[in-house]
Amino acid sequence: MECFILLGSLLALYAVLYLGFKTFIGFDQPPGGSRGKGKKQDNVDKYANATYEELLEFPERKLGLPLISLEELSKYKGSNSKLYMSVKSVVYDVSQNEVYKQKGGYHVFTGKDSSVALSKMDFKDEFFDRSKLHWRKDLKREELKVLQDWVDFYEERYPIVGYLKEDIEMQEQKKDL
Ligand code: HEM
């Protein structure tokens, strides 16, 4: 009998540890995840050798997709609209995921350029304010690496619906905001 109780307790302990690790340390985790600042899930630092200039580059653009202005983007966060968000100049449709809906924990990212907030792993208002901070001008190399990990993450999971007009104008005219 004691043997079964002991075995049961060990199994329960294992389950708790497994779920704990899965949730908070993360096997399936996004970049940065709950472990904070920018560590990749498999601990491989994919951009370890990337230079600052390389990390500043704009993601390659697919042909035929529209440019979406910040103003237009801001409309894509309502309960009756699709949910879009911009990461490093690319606009993704994230409507399929509950976490981006109005009651979801990550709704704050929708309708905006979320690059800086993602790169800093912080939801502070100022990190969504492009007049204060812009991913191309105000991030350190380590933050740009985190941002690039996020680009890879979104690229894999969500359809691209366009590119952020203001960012592309910046890219094409090499002008500052
Ligand atoms: C206590 C802090 C946090 C916890 C416990 C947490 C936990 C999680 C978990 C469990 C997931 C889902 C992982 C999966 O799909 O397997 C997730 C996804 C995500 N987290 Fe966090 N997180 C935290 C903080 C943050 C912060 C500070 C940011 C950015 C500012 C952030 C951005 C995201 C994003 C963008 C996703 C991906 C959502 C998607 O699937 O598209 N998280 N987080």
From TrEMBL:
Pfam families reported in the protein's UniProt record: Cyt-b5
Q: Where is the Cytochrome b5 heme-binding domain?
A: 68-165
The domain of life for this entry's organism is Eukaryota
Q: Name one GO cellular component term.
A: endomembrane system
To which protein family does this belong?
Belongs to the cytochrome b5 family. MAPR subfamily.
Any idea what this protein is called?
Answer: Progesterone binding protein
Q: Which organism is it from?
A: Stylonychia lemnae
Q: Which gene encodes it?
A: Contig16346.g17414
